[in-house]
Write a structure and sequence with these properties.
172 residues, alpha+beta, Alpha-Beta Plaits, 2 domains, 5 strands, elongated
């Protein structure tokens, strides 16, 4: 890799670190190419990205960013998983690590907050942004349906009362 390509990679990684909500660092030693492709596709479906970069270049790109706390984790064969959604990259990485013991989560960062492996797992257990939006829409819609039910309930009760009186008169 020549000097300009390295400079481009550093500037690209710096932009990624500045704009990502979460960055997860993991060892991938022993993963097959098929496993790595599977991980990349799962990350892509969740709106996250996996990047394998030389640790020294990633360390340079980390300087001056909020996630600079992950620099000590960059030892050995590491990969970086990142996303704009604070939960997506962590969730996919933790789920993939459960089924494949070759992926070892070292830690990560969410903004200026440094995360150990347990912190990444806790972050992965949170609902995603889309799930939270769905719950919020459900909560907003619930009162409207309750109001509609309450407004139609008295009319339905009146109709049943009149119906009962009509049947009573017919029987008599």
């Amino acid at each position: 890799m020549d000097r300009t390509a390295k400079a481009d990679l550093v500037s690209t990684l710096n932009g990624v670190f500045n704009h990502s909500a979460v960055v997860v660092v993991a060892h991938y030693k022993g993963l097959t190419v098929a496993d790595m492709q599977k991980l990349r596709s799962q990350m892509k479906q969740a709106g996250a990205t996996v990047k394998v970069a030389k640790n020294s270049l990633a360390g340079i790109a980390l300087e001056g960013t909020d996630v600079a706390s992950i620099k000590p984790l960059l030892k050995g064969p590491t990969l970086l998983a990142y996303s704009g959604d604070p939960v997506a990259a962590a969730k996919v990485a933790v789920d993939f690590a459960k089924t494949n013991d070759k992926l070892v989560i070292l830690g990560g960062a969410m903004g200026t907050t440094s995360l150990n492996p347990d912190g990444v797992k806790a972050l992965a257990s949170l609902p995603s942004l889309d799930e939270l939006r769905a719950k919020l829409v459900g909560l907003i819609q619930a009162p409207a349906t309750k109001i509609a039910q309450l407004s139609t309930a008295p009319a339905a009760k009146l109709a049943r009362v009149f119906g009962a009186y009509a049947k009573k008169d017919e029987a008599a």
